[in-house]
Amino acid sequence: MRVFLDFFLRTEHVTFVANSKTMAYTHLLVEKSEQIAEITINRPDKLNALNREVIDQLSRCFQELEQDGSVRCIILTGAGEKAFVAGADISEFANFSVEQGRDLSEEGHRKLFSLVEELNKPVIAAVNGFALGGGLELAMGCHIRIASDNARMGLPEVSLGVIPGYGGTQRLPRLVGKGRAMEMITTAQMINAETALNYGLVNHVVPQAELMDKAHEIAGKIIKNSPTAIGFAIQAVNALDNKEVDGFQEEIELFGEAFGTGDFKEGTTAFLEKRKPDFKGN
Ligand code: COA
Q1: Mean pLDDT for each 10-residue chunk of the chain (282 residues)?
Q2: Which of 31, 38, 157, 250 is an active site residue?
């Protein structure tokens, strides 16, 4: 499959339609197989930088996959061997006013970064090279991050006279601790994959050739479980970052709600009958 994809990656603006129900995207390759969807951001000549069009397409694609009952886990990666995403597209905002800058950030949060974090299906970021600025912020919006050994991560925004605007000032300290985040943000320096692993910014580091296999291995474990319970679990864990919600109370409510689902009946019945559950996601 990788060989097949590599063929397409050499050409920019390729539309890959996985099946008749999948919408066409000029900057994304989308492939679905056995309940796992793979999204590849396909703008390799610009190191997959996020311009407005890419953000719009990712937003639509994630919403579509969330509604797609045949998909239970999503893997997000970048085209080529060099970059996951090298950041927001600098050429697009270089002349922005204060209002335009604020709107760019607000729109990005709403359309993509918070959308991904709150998606009811797990999203795995397979970081296959540079994940800088908006690229690292996108990976941090995902639920699980794994990296290839050549990956380099950083938030270089202050070197451009701006600050991280797609959640980086909030999600990085939550993942690596405030001290490390302050150092990464104020020095604008990149860290390598080994340091990212040591910081807890990524869960696994593997040779680049094994990255997608590792992502699929994790996805394969996820899709065996109840999609409904996974959606509830994501919501409960995300309550940690929501100051308006008591996370423990959220957990209590969602725990109770789970008892009313078909997946709970199936999971417990299958256990008692000593068979594998057949979860329908209801
Ligand atoms: N926005 C727009 N274009 C970008 C980009 C970005 N964030 N990152 C890379 N590109 C473009 C480059 O302009 C170049 O385009 P060109 O060939 O038309 O000139 C192309 O991608 C390849 O990048 P290049 O800089 O030549 O690759 P490199 O291997 O020398 O350097 C990086 C790689 C990642 C170190 C370097 O591209 C970089 O510093 N990018 C910006 C990172 C950044 O600051 N991101 C945060 C934005 S808020």
Answers
A1: 40 38 82 97 97 97 97 98 97 95 97 98 98 98 98 98 98 98 98 98 98 98 98 97 93 98 98 97 95
A2: 157
The alpha carbon of 134 and the centre of ligand 1 are apart by a number of angstroms equal to: 12
pLDDT at res. 242: 87
Secondary structure of residue 86 in the 3-state scheme = coil
Please tell me the predicted confidence (pLDDT) of residue 98: 97
Break the chain into its structural domains and give their ranges: 14-222, 227-272
Identify any residues that bridge with 192 across adjacent strands, giving them in sequence order: 152
Taking CA atoms only, the protein residue closest to ligand 1 atom 16 is 46
What does the pLDDT read at residue 18?
Answer: 42
The yes/no answer on whether domain 227-272 falls in CATH 1.10.12 is yes
Atom of ligand 1 nearest to the CA of 46: 21
Amino acid 241: pLDDT: 87
- Given 31, 38, 117, 137, which residue is catalytic? 137
CA of 4 to the centre of ligand 1 (A): 26
> Hey, what long-range contacts does 193-197 have (CB within 8 A, 24 or more apart)?
193/147, 193/148, 193/149, 193/150, 193/151, 193/152, 193/153, 194/149, 196/147, 196/151, 196/153, 197/147
Q: Ligand 1 pocket: which residues have CB below 6 Å?
A: 46-47, 49, 86-91, 130, 132-134, 156-157, 160
What's the topology of domain 14-222? 2-enoyl-CoA Hydratase; Chain A, domain 1 (3.90.226)
Is 157 among the residues known to form the active site?
yes
